[in-house]
Amino acid sequence: MSELIIQNAALLDLESGETVPASSVRVSGDRIVEVAPGSRITGAAPVLDAAGRTLMPGLIDAHVHAAVTTLDMPAMARRTASHIGIEAAGLLEAMLRRGFTTVRDAGGLDRGVTEALDAGLIKGPRVFRSGRVISQTGGHGDFDPVGRGDPHLCACHISSNWFAHVADGPDAVRRAVREELKNGAHQIKIMASGGISSPTDPLDTVQYTRDEIRAATSEAAARGTYVLAHAFAPEAIVQAVTAGVKSVEHGVFLDTASARVMAEHSAFLVPTLVVLEQLAEIGRRWGYPAPSLDKLQAVLSAGTNAIEIALDAGVRVGFGTDLLGESHPAQGRELLLRARVQSPLDVLRSATAVNADLLGRSGELGAVAPGALADLLLVSGNPLQDLSPLADSGAGIDLVMRGGEVVRSELS
Question: How does DSSP assign 44-56, residue by residue?
Fold first, then answer.
């Protein structure tokens, strides 16, 4: 089992909000086995001199779409699984190089890509995969165009595409969820409200009934996992959370009453500000559908307000980006956008310890501590004062380690 000692690092303590200079960490295999704040670790293992750089845990992005490889949605629907898989591999490797050592894919990623990651055939972050999303007919996961003659109805109440199972009724939802869990999904994603990318649903629609959502959450709980829900409108958020959803994605129209319900049910909010900015800036250039760009205008200014409301209510706020296709390189900008409403320390906590708790991996991810996975970054400067070194495509990250393996190094 290989070992490495990192010495002379400014250890970022996310619990206390301080950095401790002249610190050391010992890594053995894929785990951290010793942490020495303010002191030197000795031994026969190779030594890496951090030269005073900040040592911190790898970042966690709890809302990515590695399999959505272009903003041109009609073109996306025509791409083969092998084409998408090859492009997704490149996107995942870029995420890792930007310092995101763990991600939660929120819909669309094929099982084969994660198997290739696990086998070492491609490089990328640790992935928690949601598989196909679960959507009602005419919901946020239903991308079938309208106006093509007779509807395609079947007695099974489920139709599937590369991204979603369109399932109506509790029994159909239950079957769709079981299928994704059988296929290795780590958690389940449902669409509980309208969205921007889908063609036929207004943003404020409430999607799925309580019984349909409860079918999904009960099946997930039976397999020891949970459900995350795309939800914009307060009514959709309340219905999802009270039906057992653990994680609300986006939540841009969150209000005080719905935030209170989230806090009472210990639900997480995963905001995704950067995708709104990027779609507004580059969406038209890359063929993002015009009706979706029109919807976007209704939410551009709402995201930061939702975060403030959630924090005031005591909701745990994670970190996500939701970037699509050509906008993926802006992943790190979410850190700067979040810093408009949170301190750099709290932004980093969201992208490490809070997200680790959301994933059910507290103490193992998002931490520099004995027993934690050795997902580590060495960063120029002090991120508690300035997040820019992390935000500019990881330009200020001089070393990325994932599970004890150095996957990127700018050190001599």
Answer: SS-EEE-TTPEEE
> What gap in Å lies between CA 347 and CA 381, rounded to an integer?
16
Residue range 78-135, pLDDT digits in tens: 999 999 999 999 999 999 999 999 999 999 999 999 999 999 999 999 999 999 999 9
**Burial of 271 (C-beta count, 10 Å sphere; 0-12/13-18/19+):** buried
Q: Are the C-beta atoms of residues 69 and 76 closer than 8 Å to each other?
A: yes
Greater model confidence, 18 or 393: 18
Separation between Cα atoms, residue 321 and residue 407, nearest integer Å? 22
- Give the containing element (helix H, strand E) for 78: helix 73-78
Structure tokens at 313: 């209510």
Fold of 59-358: TIM Barrel (3.20.20)
State mean pLDDT over 41-47: 93
Is domain 3-58+367-409 annotated with CATH 3.40.640.10?
no
Q: Cα torsion for 383, 29, 358, 292, to the nearest 10°?
A: 70
Distances (CA, A) of 143 to 74, 148, 260, 323: 9, 13, 33, 18
- pLDDT bracket for residue 199 (50, 70, 90): low
**C-alpha 46 chain-centroid distance:** 34
pTM exceeding 0.90 = yes
Model pLDDT for residues 119-167, shown as the tens digit of each residue:
999 999 999 999 999 999 866 655 555 555 555 555 567 888 889 999 9
**Distances in whole angstroms, Cα of residue 400 to Cα of each of 58, 164, 305, 381, 405:** 8, 33, 33, 15, 8
* Domain range annotation of the chain: 3-58+367-409, 59-358
Pairing mode, strands 18-28 and 3-13: antiparallel
Of all helices (H) and strands (E), which one includes residue 317? Answer: strand 316-317
Q: Tell me how far apart the alpha carbons of residues 152 and 288 are, in angstroms, rounded to a whole number.
A: 26
Nearest to 177 by CA among 161, 188, 191: 188
Of 216, 247, 225, the closest CA to residue 360 belongs to 225
* pLDDT computed for residue 263 by the predictor: 98
- How many angstroms separate the CA atoms of 333 and 346, rounded? 15
Is the four-CA dihedral 81, 86, 90, 95 of positive or negative sign?
Answer: positive
